[in-house]
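Quick start: what a row looks like.
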Amino acid sequence: MKKLLASFIVVGLFTLFLVGENGKVGAEEFKESVQYFDSNNSPVSPYTQKELDEMKERVRNLEGKSSRNNLNDYSLSSSYYHFGETSYSNYVWIKGGSTFYNPQYVDFEIINRIEGRALYVYDSSGKYQGKAVFPKYGNIWYASSWTHLPRGKSYKFKLVSELGYYSELLQGSVKYN
């Protein structure tokens, strides 16, 4: 009986540590952020800490706007492409592999949390340019900035499950011009 009680206490403390007091796994509990890699899959840091903090704030502002109906907030802008619900275990191209001129960022809202969720970027000729790898925990909105890519070119994006886990997304968008 004492061993059973001790087990419940350990599991309870672990759950409190992992999930947090508010019942959510959030950015405050997990300080991980998007990791960028170049065309050789070497880690790169294309942004300053201030720029990363501004990106995180933008993602935080998306929290609470997680509804398909909120896509209308941007529908008048010709520099956004919105995509709806999708799922994949290997990969899926955004807009079927179409290119986006001078992409600024890609963001998306997740339904499930998996390890190994990434966004690969290719130039218009299909040459791999690098990737952004997203943490398993954090907000339900993920965003990756692509302003570090050379300007005046078009790029295409592929959502990838690097570990083969089933990935579900509710919606997302690409800002470009």
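That is the whole record. The chain has two helices and twelve strands. The CA atoms of residues 35 and 88 lie 21 Å apart.
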